[in-house]
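Hey, quick one: can you model this chain's 3D structure?
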Amino acid sequence: MPALKGKFEFRKSPRTTRRSLLFALGYCLMLSTTLSSCSEAKNNAQQSAGSPESVAVSSTTEKQVVRIVRSKQLSALAVLEKQGSLEKRLEPLGFKVQWAEFAAGPQQLEALNANGLDIASTAESPPVFSQAAGAPLVYLATTRPSGKAISLLVPVNSSIKSITDLKGKKVAFQKASIGHYLLVKALEDAGLKLSDVQSVFLAPADANAAFSQNKVDAWYIWEPFGTRNVQNKIARVLADGDKLRDTGNFYSTSRQFYQAHPDVIKIFLEELEKSEIWTKDHPKEVAQLLAPVTQLDPPTLEIMHNKYDYGLLPITEKTITKQQEVADKWYSLGLIPKKVNVRDGFLTPEEYAKITPSDVLANK
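Sure thing. Here's the predicted structure for all 364 residues.
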């Protein structure tokens, strides 16, 4: 203490002492903040650049979250959540998985655009509507059509026997969904237009209630809603999408998430494809695993398994061309405000080669 006394002269100048202390404390605080900011900036830069140090950094800090849509269908995505393999693969990268539930595809892409979701799974139409609204989404992969898993339902005692009988009737569906798209195609095949029916835009849960209360005359919906209503003797299937559907589902993300975390997307697609293969080859085990998810008994799910064609498909020029046809159809009907160039949401072949599993690329 005498050395300090001689240097700073605490007792001889109380005013100077207070100023010196305040200055010293302020300087230390500023230095600490600056060093902390520099360290944080360095860590962020390492993670964005994908440097080897990023894994070490993430192990000592709070894990980042990748938010993926939860599937409540008989799907490989639902199996992936139950098996937990994705979580194990992403843990070394400093990521944990959060599964988020949404009513349908359009709601997913609204969340994707609002930074409330990172990976979505929808049919072909929601991305088109999202692109028309200016959202910078990225198409990651596609699937086989599985048209039998989408049904046009009518009440079990309905007098409606064919698509032409729908003229003037109330038909419920989620706007911008696969049900919307297949209704357009079914009506056109029967020589009718969308304006020939009364469109009732309802999310699946609301449509289910309206249909069971006979407030609508028909409902275009996907599984497991169809099978549950048939089992409960509420509905019968007027038609399914087997011959009508010529598109698959899409997995998509935001442009921002793709650019920041292509490594996460690559691992997601690898684990998803493994799940697709396992789901295809193990119908009994899948039925047991997903019975609580779908609210259907295992024997029913084993039968339903045949309605799906499992496995991812690579993005090709044919995929892009077909998606452009979908976009042009919605524009011609006046249901999107502007003509959409879907290619804006697709990556280059070289970019797809970096994130797509090799066995999926072999399906080109």
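One thing worth noting: DSSP finds 17 helices and eleven strands in the chain.
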